[in-house]
Amino acid sequence: MYLQQGRGDSAVEAGLHLLPMGIAAVLGAVLAARLTHRIGARFVQRAGALASLAGLLLLSRVDSDDSYTSSLLPGFVLLGLGVIGVAVAGQITAQAGAGAGEAGGVSGVLTTGYQVGGALGLALATTLPAEHSGGVSGVVSAAVETFQDGILVAAGFAAVNLVLALLAPATPRSHS
Questions:
Q1: What's the first-to-final CA gap in the chain, in angstroms?
Q2: Which residue from 81, 144, 159, 164 lies 20 to 30 Å from 87 (Cα-Cα)?
Q3: Is the pLDDT score of 136 beyond 70?
Q4: Is 40 left (phi over 0), alpha (psi -120 to 50) or beta?
Q5: SS3 at position 138
Q6: In whole angstroms, what is the distance from residue 49 CA to residue 52 CA?
Q7: Residues 55 and 77 sit within 8 Å (Cβ to Cβ)
Q8: Calpha distance 51→59 (Å, rounded)
Q9: 55 vs 57: CA distance, rounded Å
């Protein structure tokens, strides 16, 4: 919504602008898996949580006339790397603790948790700011302010995730 209404991107431009976040997530998944096996999940989860928070904080500062490459791209890349880092390390940790007959169930429960949590987080990050942006005049200003406020709500969730990652106990390294 922000890319199209706040910046004036077409649907194709908005999709292309989001592509680096997807590429970062794919590359981040490979990197997170390797790092989790080498140095353990706790470091990867902490780094992912920090990258997610940093990316969201960068994105919370954008305006309608900011440059894509200097304002949006770094936030998108950090967010793509961070979210997938947390998810991959969590999935590997969960699978490592599961027995051979439990792996599918554990994976299903964890994936469902990610999906439901993401959906609830998205709902909160979009509806809370939208309800409080009634005083903003103009479609562009409203889109930008709602985006910024929504990203700050998401950053709050990311901050909680970072605190939980910092408090998480050490887990044994996976040797698979």
A1: 42
A2: 144
A3: no
A4: left
A5: coil
A6: 5
A7: yes
A8: 12
A9: 5
What is the sign, positive or negative, of the torsion defined by CA atoms of 15, 17, 23, 28?
A: negative
Rounded to whole angstroms, the maximal C-alpha distance in the chain is 58
Look up tokens 């990203």; give the residue. Answer: 151
| Span 39-88, pLDDT tens digits | 988 999 999 999 999 999 999 988 878 888 988 999 999 999 999 999 99
- CA neighbor of 125 nearest in space, from 153, 96, 164: 153
Structure tokens at 47: 């780094």
Q: How many residues does the chain have?
A: 176
- Look up residue 73 and give its DSSP letter: H
Residue type, 2: Y
Enter the tokens of residue 141.
Answer: 């200003």
Euclidean distance between CA atoms 35 and 46, whole angstroms: 12
- Cα(37)–Cα(151) distance, rounded to whole angstroms? 32
Task: Please state the φ and ψ torsions of residue 93, each to the nearest 5 degrees.
Answer: -60, -45
